[in-house]
Amino acid sequence: MEAISDKYDVPFDKIGKIFKKCKKGILINMDDNIVKHYSNEDTFQLQIEEAGGSYKLTLTEI
Q1: Which of 11, 19, 35, 52 is the most buried (most CB within 10 A)?
Q2: Alpha carbon distance 38, 33 (integer Å)
């Protein structure tokens, strides 16, 4: 999550949850181990939403 924090200027301590949305529309809660495998930015779009002082990140497969 530090890489996401650094690259997209999202405070690390404010990242609440990270989700992956697959092509079928299923939303999956991701942990640090899963996030580490997502390095190819050509395979997903990142959506950042702020709510209640924390950020929700959604990686949508394309």
Answers
A1: 35
A2: 10
29 pairs with which residues across the strands? 19
End-to-end CA distance of the chain: 21
Computed over every residue of the chain, the mean pLDDT equals 90
Handedness of CA 12, 53, 19, 22 (dihedral sign): negative
* DSSP bridge partners of 54: 51
Would you place residue 32 in the very low, low, confident or very high pLDDT band (cuts 50, 70, 90)?
confident
DSSP string covering 4-62: HHHHHT--GGGEEEEEEE-TT--EEEE-HHHHTT---GGGEEEEEEEETTEEEEEEEE-
Longest dimension (CA), the chain: 31
